[in-house]
Amino acid sequence: MRMKLTHLILFGISSLTAIATPTKQCIELEIPISIIANNSIYSMPTVDNTFEAVQWTLNVTTWSRNLNSSINLGPKLINSTFSINAQLCIPQHKTPKSNILQIAISGRGFDKRYWDPEINPAKYSYIDAAIKKGYSILSYDMLGSGKSSKPNAYEVVQLPTQVEILAELTKLIKSGYLLTSSKLLSPLTIPTVFKPSKIVHVGHSYGSAVTFNFLIQHGNLSDAAILTGLLFNSKAGSVNVAYFDHEFARQHDPIRFNQYNSGYIVLTFQSDLQKLFFRYPGGFEPEMLTYLEKIKQPEAVGLYASESMLRVGQHANDFKGPVQFMVGEFDFVNCMGDCKGGVYDEGLTMRSFPVAKNVTHYLQPGTGHALSLARNATGGYEVMLGFLGDNGL
Ligand SMILES: *[C@@H]1O[C@H](CO)[C@@H](O)[C@H](O)[C@H]1NC(C)=O
Ligand SMILES: *[C@@H]1O[C@H](CO)[C@@H](O)[C@H](O)[C@H]1NC(C)=O
Ligand SMILES: *[C@@H]1O[C@H](CO)[C@@H](O)[C@H](O)[C@H]1NC(C)=O
Ligand SMILES: *[C@@H]1O[C@H](CO)[C@@H](O)[C@H](O)[C@H]1NC(C)=O
Ligand SMILES: *[C@@H]1O[C@H](CO)[C@@H](O)[C@H](O)[C@H]1NC(C)=O
Ligand SMILES: *[C@@H]1O[C@H](CO)[C@@H](O)[C@H](O)[C@H]1NC(C)=O
Ligand SMILES: *[C@@H]1O[C@H](CO)[C@@H](O)[C@H](O)[C@H]1NC(C)=O
Fold first, then answer.
1. pLDDT at 191
2. Which single residue of 77, 172, 338, 342 has CA 20 to 30 Å from 85?
3. Residue 229 in contact with residue 107, Cβ under 8 Å?
4. Non-local CB neighbours of 341 within 8 Å, separated by 6+ positions
5. Which amino acid residue places its CA nearest to atom 13 of ligand 2?
6. Ligand 3, CB cutoff 6 Å, lining residues
């Protein structure tokens, strides 16, 4: 629902009290982001068809290969500008929290629709849940997915690139020049000067890994963070890419994925999506699987190769805000199906954030890896947004 600015001025004050639930105004942006990132060149087979996708999977999961530091063949400096597709939503009317912007980044294999499924948004959309509490929120497609640039899948689309994109995007937003620097892909419904006073970073899965590194390297750019689908625990790493079937994206669907070149793979079956995301019987509505199959995105192999750049054990010395780790109790990829039973590594989590205001974790009951697509997504959002509220945001 969109309203003109004049409309807002005319009716803004009187309707403010009458509207219990703020509705949103959204705009789609194409944001040019220039970054410098320290990537690496990794030894791995190229993937130009599905046969090679399987060979790649076997290669990179071979245990002895992963002990061998020679898989990193040397540094690769990335100095480029990419186009990042984003959606910015703000509450229809000014709220006490509309100056707080959340930046949401999804995991590997999905674009920003992860936060905003078209099925029953009142129940599943994190965007709508945040707006309802009065926050502004920007979600974007990670480099190499959705409507963002799809550069070289081996050397360019890696963890360090994604971290620098998040940092530059955050700086651009803080400067107030986001809208004037971007190409507007839908009509402008909001003031051109959008300069939030506080920024909250929200990730899911690989997006949380990106956010974690960002907090380590650029912690003073963030006022708070919620890392969903990520938990430091003793089972982490048990479930690798070979647990799921992948095909070469362009072979899997030559029409839908025709923009994806060498090195972009995609989950093959609906059953892979079920395994990855839902695990717990009854925790999801079956129609969600059909929907996910429709919106799934290719993944660059460089995202996997660069996982070793995750800065586990390093300290976010410049991050002073609160941070919440939010994970489904039955998360398969993170905890091999069960995040309880003492697997959580509280010591490591606490040490990572030596000056944070509040470091906490929450296990969302009855839920697998995909918190926003689970039957009880709304219950989880109450916990996440409640955490921000409790911590003065
Ligand atoms: C990249 O590495 C160089 C040399 O080690 C360092 O000076 C620079 O800060 C690094 N840049 C980033 C974005 O990590
Ligand atoms: C993996 O692929 C690389 C590059 O093609 C090759 O050098 C290496 O021998 C392979 N290793 C395994 C374990 O298949
Ligand atoms: C590790 O890499 C070196 C250099 O490529 C190679 O000689 C050695 O066989 C590798 N070791 C294993 C266990 O793959
Ligand atoms: C990045 O590229 C720009 C323009 O192409 C150049 O001026 C700059 O020196 C480069 N930076 C690095 C660190 O290579
Ligand atoms: C954040 O830290 C960097 C150096 O790590 C510094 O250059 C920058 O000015 C700081 N920004 C703020 C807002 O404090
Ligand atoms: C839904 O999530 C909330 C928040 O974690 C929890 O309190 C509630 O018990 C959950 N409901 C069900 C049916 O699991
Ligand atoms: C941290 O946040 C949690 C969840 O909102 C809250 O229960 C707890 O009291 C907070 N702890 C501190 C030290 O503020």
1. 79
2. 77
3. yes
4. none
5. 59
6. 64-65, 68, 70
The pLDDT assigned to 22 comes to: 62
Cα of 38 from ligand 1 centre, angstroms: 6
Q: Which of 368, 354, 366, 62 is nearest to 204 (CA)?
A: 368
Q: Give the pLDDT confidence score for residue 76 in this predicted structure.
A: 98
How much is the average pLDDT of 162-182? 97
Query: Is there an atom of ligand 4 within 6 Å of 79 CB?
Result: yes
Q: How far apart are CA 263 and CA 240, in angstroms?
A: 18
Whole-number percent of the chain with pLDDT over 90: 89
Q: What is the CA radius of gyration of the chain?
A: 20
Separation CA 251–CA 244 (nearest Å): 17
Closest protein CA for atom 10 of ligand 3: 68
Distance CA 18, CA 342 (A): 48
Distance CA 75, CA 41 (A): 6
> Using CA atoms, how far apart are residues 241 and 239, in angstroms rounded to an integer?
7
Positive or negative torsion for Cα 359, 364, 370, 371: negative
Instruction: Choose which residue among 360, 383, 388 to substitute to test ligand 7 binding: the one with the highest number of ligand atoms within 8 A of its C-beta.
Output: 360
Report the separation in Å between the CA atom of 222 and the middle of ligand 5, taken as the mean of its atom positions.
Answer: 11
Nearest ligand (C-alpha, residue 59): 2
Q: Is the CB of 60 under 6 A from ligand 2?
A: no
Q: Could you tell me how far CA 363 lies from the centroid of its own chain?
A: 19
Number of neighbours of residue 89 by Cβ within 10 angstroms: 25
- DSSP code per residue over 204-259: ETHHHHHHHHHHHHHGGG-SEEEEET---BTTTTSS-GGGS-EEEHHHH-TTTTTT
| Number of C-beta neighbours around residue 374 at 10 A | 26
pTM value is 0.93
- Tokens describing residue 233: 């625990």
Q: What's the CA-to-centroid distance between 382 and ligand 7, angstroms?
A: 15
The residue whose CA is least distant from atom 4 of ligand 5 is 218
pLDDT digits over 267-304, tens only?
999 999 999 999 767 789 989 999 999 999 999 999 99
Residue 11 in this model has a pLDDT that exceeds 70 = no
**75 pocket-lining for ligand 4 (C-beta < 6 Å):** no
Q: What is the DSSP letter of 116?
A: S
